Amino acid sequence: MGYYTVNGGLIGTGEISSRKGVFNLESAQYYASPADGIEFDFTNGSLPSGMYQANSGPVVSWDSTGVKLSGDAPNDGYSYPLRIPISFNWDYLFQLSTRIDADPTGSNWCSDAGIAIFTSSYLSDWTWKWGTLSGRIAVQHNCKKPYIYGSTSSTSMTAPNGGDVLISPYVSHQGWVTMHMYHEPSLSRTRYEITLGSKDWNATGTRIGSSPNSGILEISNFFYGDYYVGISADDDSDGMYANGFRYRQL
After folding, report:
1. Are 210 and 230 part of one and the same domain?
2. Range of the structural domain that residue 219 is part of
């Protein structure tokens, strides 16, 4: 149970899953206990209530499996079509449940999903980049290898298999994994881990990767003040499926 406010005035109460009482998401903020979270189900065939879809990046389609982001991100181009139209401040966990697919030719595994936070508004032009970028911190899958790209530094998985863990035998074709992005300015860091399983919000599934830090990537880039979050992907020969997104305050 939580409550919603606009300009300090109570406008509704209700269960977190139904998000009752929100009449204007652009001016409303949800306040909940640290154990609570907001989840968006992508399997109902359309954009969930409470999300914003921008006309940028890969082609977006919806079906019972989830949302499919098809084609080029593109690199150094405008992207992140799925966004949350409210700002965040301080420590938050952002999670994406996504499917890992071998490319149609079977020659590669490039279901390159990404979550990123930006210091610019959700109405801004957000750029996908395979590298560091000012005003952005991103967790991305780079053809079998997980990365964090910060504003000034980056890191990637290094073991096993040289860090190429988003491939069999570590995850099966059309197997689901959950991405966990921990933005923790209170600890001067951003961390990232991946666990096996669809919508593994509690991170009880097997963690993929063993090095560095037992498979938890970490950089010392973080944002003070307001920031925004978005989702994108880069799969030139096919598309990336995701069936849910969640965030909660840490």
Report:
1. yes
2. 37-249
Q: How many domains does the chain have?
A: 2
**∠ CA 230-243-229 to the nearest 5 degrees?**
10
In the prediction, which pLDDT does 166 show?
93
Going by the DSSP 8-state scheme, the letter that residue 48 receives in this structure is: P
- The CATH number for 151's domain is 2.60.120.200
Residues forming beta bridges with residue 9, ordered by sequence position: 6
Sign of CA dihedral 229, 54, 148, 171: positive
Give the three-class secondary structure for 162. Answer: helix
Beta strands in 35-135 (DSSP E): 38-41, 52-53, 59-62, 67-71, 77-78, 82-83, 88-89, 92-100, 112-118, 127-128
Instruction: Work out the end-to-end distance of the chain between its first and last CA atoms, rounded to an integer number of angstroms.
Output: 17
User: What per-residue confidence (pLDDT) applies to 222?
Assistant: 98
Residues 85, 123 share a domain: yes
CA-closest candidate to residue 130, choices 117, 110, 147, 144: 147
- Check: CB of residue 69 under 8 Å from CB of residue 59: yes
184 and 68 part of one domain: yes
Which two tokens mark 23?
A: 């009449």
Could you report the per-residue pLDDT of 196-243, keeping only the tens digit for each? 999 999 999 999 999 999 999 999 999 999 999 999 998 777 789 999
**Looking at the structure, do residues 9 and 103 belong to the same domain, yes or no?**
no
